[in-house]
C-alpha cells in the first residue's frame, strides 16, 4: 500500500476543489460537447492546463505539486499526477477530457519534440483556447496499430504529404495542433509522428456522435495530402529506434494509468452518489471498498512506474481491474436507484455510459490481458 | 408463457429492440389484471418504456437521445405504483426475453465484424481470447433463457436475471471495440435495452451485483 505524504495530500485536496467545478459542468458538456465557449474560462480548466505545461510556458504559478518535478513536461512523478488527476476524475471524467490542454499529445511532444517543435506546440496550447489531438487509430486498424495504413509521402521539396484516415481521435474536429502517426515505409521503424498545425490544406475532420464520454469529442479525420514541413517530423534528432512507436509506447504507459484513474474516480463518484441518494442500499460498502482497493492499486502501479518506467505489468493490471470494477459499479448503481432511476438521475445515467469508454482507451481489455500474462511470465508479479 | 417469451426473443432478434418490446408489451397487456389499461399500468416506477409508435395520444413523455434512435420513448406513469405484482414479474421475464434476442442479434453482428477484421494476418475471431468470450456469451444466453422460463416470481431471482443481462450485454458490446461506442452503431440497442430494463424492473432490494 502506498501512503500519501503531506505534499501528496495537498495535491489531492487542491484537486478536490477543481473537481467540483468540473462536476457542475458535466451534464452540459455531455449534452453539447461542441458548445464549449461557456466553459473555457473555468478555473478548473486553467489549473489542468497549467499543470500540464512546462514551466516556461505557464502563465500562473502552478497548483501545489500538481506540477514541478523532473518530468520533461514539467509534471511531477507519475504517483503525484495520479493523486491529483484521480480527484479530478471523481468530479467528472467527460468534463476533464473536454479541457483544452496539452493532453496526450503533450506527453508525446515532451518526449520526442525538439526545441522548435515544443515551442510551436506549447505556444498554441497555452492559450487555453486550443485543443490538441493525438491521431493513431484508423477505421481498419485499432489494437493492431503497427499495421496502420496512413502514409507520409515525400513532396520532393524536403517536406512530406499525409494521406489516410484516422478515427476515434479525441479533439480531432476542434483541435488546433497535434500529432498524427503515419508510415514512411513497411517496417514498424517506419512509423513516424508528424506535428500538424491547423488550418492545413487537405485536412477534413468531422465529429463522431458517441454513446458516452462525449466531452472527449471523438472525431474522424481525412488526410488528403496534408503538407508537413520537413522540420515537423518528431524525433528526427533521436536514434531511429526512439522516433515513432517507442514514444507512443511510453505515452501509452502514462495514459493507461490515467484511464485506470478515470475508472476509479468515476466508480467512487457513483458509489458516493448512491450513498447520498439511496442511503442504506445493499452493496454500498462493497462498492466503496472495491473502488478503494482499485485506487490503492493505481497508486502502487504509479509508484512502480516511477521506479521503473519500462515495466508496464502493474499498470496494465490496474487498468484491467479498475475498468471492470467501474463497469460493475455502474450496473449496481443503476439497479440501486430503483425503477426508472436512470431517467430521474441523469448524472448517474451519464456515468453509466462514460465508464464503457475505459475498456477501449489505450489498449482494450484483451490487449491488457496479453500484457499482464506476459509480465507475469517474465516474473513481474514477484518484482514489487 | 413459454411461447410468449420465445416470440419476444425471436422478434427482438429478427426485427430489433422496438419490435421486440412491442411484442413483449402486447403479451403483457393481455393479462386480465391489466384489462384495457395497457401494459404501462404494470410499470413499477414513474415511467414506462414503450415503442414510440405505441405511445398513447397526449401522454407526458420523456426522451433520451439513444432511445430516440431505437424509437423508444418513456411515458409518465403518475400516482402510486403497484409493487411486487404478478404482472411485474411477467414484465421482467418478457423484457429479459427481449434482451436475450438483442444479445443474439448483436452477437451475430459482432462475429461477422470480427471475421472481417484482422490483426497480424489473422481474423480477430480466431484469437483465443475472443473465441472464449463468444463461447461464454452464448453459454450464458442458454442459461439465462432457462432462468427466465423456469424461475419463480421471486423479486431477487428476477433482479439477478437482469443484473446478469446487464453484464451479458456489456460482454457483447466490448467485442465491437470503439465502433460499437458510436451512437449510430447497431450496438446502441445493447445500451438502450439496459435502460429499458432499468425502467421495467425493480431491483432495489436485489442490488447485490457490485
Ligand atoms: C473514448 C475514446 C477515446 C479515444 N481516443 C483516441 C485518441 O485520442 N487517439 C487515437 O488514436 N485513438 C483513440 N481511441 C481509439 C482507441 O485507441 C481504439 O478504440 C483502441 O485502440 C481499440 O481499437 P478498436 O476500437 O478498433 O478495436 P479492435 O482493435 O478492432 O478490437 C475489437 C475487439 O477485438 C479485441 N482484440 C483486438 N485485438 C486482439 C488480440 N490481438 N487478441 C484478442 N483480442 C483482440 C478487442 O479487445 C475488442 O474486443 C479512443 C477510443 C475511445 C473509446
TrEMBL record, chain A:
The keyword Oxidoreductase applies. Keywords: FAD, Flavoprotein, Oxidoreductase. Coiled coil: none annotated. One of its GO terms (molecular function) is flavin adenine dinucleotide binding. Residues 134-226 form the Acyl-CoA oxidase/dehydrogenase middle domain. It holds the Pfam family Acyl-CoA_dh_1. Residues 244-375 form the Acyl-CoA dehydrogenase/oxidase C-terminal domain. InterPro entries: Acyl-CoA_Oxase/DH_mid-dom, Acyl-CoA_Oxase/DH_mid-dom_sf, AcylCo_DH-like_C, AcylCo_DH/oxidase_C, AcylCoA_DH/ox_N_sf, AcylCoA_DH/oxidase_NM_dom_sf. Its cofactor is FAD. Belongs to the acyl-CoA dehydrogenase family. This is Acyl-CoA dehydrogenase.
TrEMBL record, chain B:
The keyword Transmembrane does not apply. GO terms for molecular function: oxidoreductase activity, acting on the CH-CH group of donors. Pfam families: Acyl-CoA_dh_1. It comes from the Bacteria. Residues 94-149 form the Acyl-CoA dehydrogenase/oxidase C-terminal domain. The keyword Flavoprotein applies. Keywords: Flavoprotein. Gene3D superfamilies: Butyryl-CoA Dehydrogenase, subunit A, domain 3. This is Acyl-CoA dehydrogenase, C-terminal domain. The lineage of its organism: Bacteria, Bacillati, Actinomycetota, Actinomycetes, Kitasatosporales.
